[in-house]
Amino acid sequence: MKKSSVVAAVASAAVLTGGITVAANAVQPAAPAAPAAVRAVDVQAAEGTTVAQNRITATASAKAVQAALEKCVADKLPFVTVALVDRFGTVQALLRGDNAAEHTIEAAKQKAYTAAAFGAPTSELAKRIQSPGPSIADLPGTLFLAGGVPLKVNGASVAGIGVGGAPDGALDEACAAAGAEAIAH
């Protein structure tokens, strides 16, 4: 085959494939249809559809954390933080004592959440952590040290109060219990 025939064949192939590529690129798929407008749906409150939730009021939460801190101050423990959270761990009230270190804030919140989530004092929950392997103590946001007390309404845990910063968890828990008692009646 002559060199000129090869060049002509290659040129023809290039023109042909180029033309096919241009033609293929010219055919664009149809644009997707715009999604239908989303509107709010009114769900009727009914058994099987919604859940009624109890929550500690802001006033009661403030009273509880104040009472817990007052107990700690009376016990010469002004360096603690007290937190009250709902059962999902959302802070309802937090009070940091004079000279309380920053780590006490997170400890108080985590103890309060652990007590609320499991419906038991964290001192009791800490006794259940015995295995050397993974356990519930590995759950994010929880702290299985004494100092958290659940708050219940009709037997259901709705919140927790936690204290962090005392040199012994039993001291934290005594303050948390005093806060819980302040709103129990």
UniProtKB/TrEMBL annotation:
Pfam family of the protein (one): HbpS-like
Keyword set, alphabetical order: Signal
Keyword Signal: yes
Signal peptide start and end residues: 1-23
InterPro entries: GlcG_carb_metab_protein (IPR052517), PduO/GlcC-like (IPR005624), PduO/GlcC-like_sf (IPR038084)
Identification of the protein by name: Heme-binding protein
Organism: Sinomonas terricola
